[in-house]
Design brief:
Blueprint lengths: L2 E2 L6 H9 L5 E5 L5 E3 L3 H12 L6 E5 L2 H13 L4
Antiparallel strand pairs: 1-4, 2-3, 2-4
Length: 82
């Protein structure tokens, strides 16, 4: 799954959605210079900080498992993340 993150309003809900995933979830910068494993708390704080800096459109989310992709897509739809 590739999902650009331009409009996440509820970072806590996003964090909980990521933590509910069974496999790893990565936030990756489009140019490949940064990649954060969102299942790691330290990486998660840095990654969420990047999103708060209003650079969400520079990043995409990738999941290890298809079931996790489906759950995150549901989150994006429910929270109107574009």
């Amino acid at each position: 799954m590739s999902r650009f993150l331009k409009n996440i309003q509820d970072l806590d809900a996003f964090r909980k959605a990521v933590l509910s995933c069974h496999g790893d979830v990565w936030l990756r910068k489009n140019d490949g210079t940064e990649e954060f494993n969102l299942k790691s708390q330290l990486s998660q704080y840095i990654a969420l900080g990047r999103l708060c800096e209003d650079h969400g459109s520079d990043y995409e989310v990738f999941c290890q498992f298809a079931t996790d992709e489906a759950n995150l897509l549901k989150f994006f739809h429910e929270h109107d993340v574009r």
